[in-house]
Amino acid sequence: RGKALQPLFKMSYSCSKVGDPRPGHPYKGGNFCAFLPETVEGVKIAKLLKKAFECGLTFQIKSCNGEERVTWGPIPHKTSWDGGKARNGYPDAQYLHEVGTVL
């Protein structure tokens, strides 16, 4: 598998904002981990993902059973080294190109 970059996002409890399911209500956070290869392109994508996170584009808040939760947003992330594309994992030869296009 080689070396891998592992961006870790930790979202704790907070209040939702305008445009979220219930603005001003608290939501439950969580730990989110994604994997990128430690290659020139992987490092480039990591920088773009950091910018997306800083702009509030990485996560979204969804209402589930009356509770607001943080979930992954529209930017695809690889959350496993295994399982292939169908399970948000590797191998997926097109992932870096596809996420780069989205970013």
UniProtKB/TrEMBL annotation:
GO biological process, any: Notch signaling pathway
Q: What is its main location?
A: cytoplasm
- GO CC annotation terms, alphabetical: cytoplasm
Presence of the UniProt keyword Metal-binding in the record: yes
Top-rank lineage group of the source organism: Eukaryota
EC main group: transferase
Cellular compartments annotated:
Cytoplasm
According to its UniProt record, which reaction does this protein catalyse?
A: S-ubiquitinyl-[E2 ubiquitin-conjugating enzyme]-L-cysteine + [acceptor protein]-L-lysine = [E2 ubiquitin-conjugating enzyme]-L-cysteine + N(6)-ubiquitinyl-[acceptor protein]-L-lysine
GO molecular function: any one? ligase activity
TM region(s), chain numbering: none
Q: Which UniProt keywords apply?
A: Cytoplasm, Ligase, Metal-binding, Transferase, Zinc, Zinc-finger
Residue ranges constituting the Deltex C-terminal domain according to the UniProt record: 9-100
Question: Which pathway does this polypeptide act in?
Answer: Protein modification; protein ubiquitination
Name the Gene3D superfamilies for this protein. 3.30.390.130
This entry's Enzyme Commission designation comes to 2.3.2.27
Report the sequence similarity comment from the record: Belongs to the Deltex family.
Its recorded name reads E3 ubiquitin-protein ligase
Give the species this sequence originates from.
Loxia curvirostra (Red crossbill)
Per the UniProt record, the lineage of the source organism begins with: Eukaryota, Metazoa, Chordata, Craniata, Vertebrata
Protein encoded by which gene = Dtx3l_1
